[in-house]
User: Which sequence fits this backbone?
């Protein structure tokens, strides 16, 4: 089958072996797969991704199985934001049937352990024509739902989880720093939680427009009006949660400097580089810093349901589509925030 393969820190289009489902697994045809910012970073800085994966494995509770850590010297087929059609099933499968349209938590389970789909040497991700999924990790997409929209279940669930771990509720204001896909997912989840006002900040006019579409009450260019100044202008009274969704060094310290006393800062931007903060800023202001990662199965299911019933409109986020052969160029195009929000790979 055809796939976009990460090989020697580059993307190449190549033929790779067709996957075969084992017990408890299903063979699927990829329908749509979103290109994630983490994939862009992994291609450019795979060593940092591997280092963070090793740190995560070291932090597991004793006795818990560690997930596979990809070997950058071997081929990897990325892609973890996908929808797919079930083609065939292995033994001991009771959740899926051939013909079902499904999404899945991007994890494959087998007798050898846990494999993160999209970052595995053994299991191809969604930048391939076919994948093998774990039956019990899949969720059927309701009839009538566009598979292209269903593919955004995974990235939108990241935003829902960040909002959930913050504990934010109506009566509390929110500032979202960064309006890339993660920030937009946070904004959408905040809107569905009844939070008001939501202030978004991004230098890109295109991304600010998308932030307003997804539910931000105010979207500002931080180069001309800092986000916290905008919050003070339109509100300034309610308790505040700041969501850092940029993921570059310096953002956390900047948020700590600008935040009022007692603010909660939720870090959901994926920064893999060493960063520095001034702890005294947090001490004197009694700030609370919370980190958020991924989602749980309930949040994944909730997000799919919201897309299916129309509460969560993800169509505006899809700004492009490419076949597998177009993946390398799509990676280059996503470097321009004015050009795209989410590009889908449609084999």
Assistant:
């Amino acid at each position: 089958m055809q796939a976009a393969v990460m090989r020697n820190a580059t993307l190449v289009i190549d033929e790779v072996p067709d996957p075969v489902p084992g017990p408890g697994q299903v063979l699927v045809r990829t329908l749509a797969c979103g290109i994630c910012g983490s994939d862009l970073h992994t291609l450019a800085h795979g060593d940092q991704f591997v280092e963070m994966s090793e740190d995560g494995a070291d932090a597991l509770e004793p006795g818990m199985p560690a997930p596979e850590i990809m070997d950058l010297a071997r081929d990897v087929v990325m892609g973890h934001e996908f929808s797919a059609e079930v083609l065939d099933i292995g033994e001991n499968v009771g959740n899926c049937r051939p013909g079902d349209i499904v999404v899945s938590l991007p994890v494959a389970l087998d007798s050898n352990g846990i494999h993160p789909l999209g970052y595995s040497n053994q299991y191809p991700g969604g930048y391939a024509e076919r994948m093998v999924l774990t039956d019990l990790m899949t969720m059927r997409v309701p009839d009538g739902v566009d598979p292209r929209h269903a593919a955004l279940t995974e990235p939108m669930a990241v935003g829902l989880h960040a909002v959930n771990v913050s504990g934010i509720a109506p009566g509390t204001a929110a500032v979202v720093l960064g309006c890339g896909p993660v920030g937009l997912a946070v904004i959408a989840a905040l809107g569905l939680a009844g939070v008001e006002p939501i202030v978004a900040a991004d230098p890109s006019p295109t991304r600010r427009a998308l932030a307003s579409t997804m539910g931000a009450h105010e979207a500002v260019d931080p180069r001309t009006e800092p986000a916290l100044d905008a919050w003070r202008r339109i509100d300034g009274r309610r308790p505040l949660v700041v969501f850092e969704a940029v993921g570059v060094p310096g953002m956390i310290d900047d948020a700590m400097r600008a935040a009022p006393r007692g603010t909660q800062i939720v870090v959901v931007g994926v920064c893999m580089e060493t960063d520095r903060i001034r702890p005294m800023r947090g001490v004197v202001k009694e700030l609370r810093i919370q980190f958020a990662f991924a989602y749980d199965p309930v949040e994944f299911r909730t997000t799919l349901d919201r897309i299916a019933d129309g509460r969560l409109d993800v169509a505006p986020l899809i700004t492009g589509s490419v076949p597998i052969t177009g993946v390398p160029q799509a990676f280059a195009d996503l470097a321009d925030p004015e050009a795209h929000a989410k590009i889908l790979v449609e084999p």
Summary: The two ends are 10 Å apart (CA to CA). The first helix runs from residue 37 to 44. The longest strand covers residues 25-34. The chain has a mean pLDDT of 94.
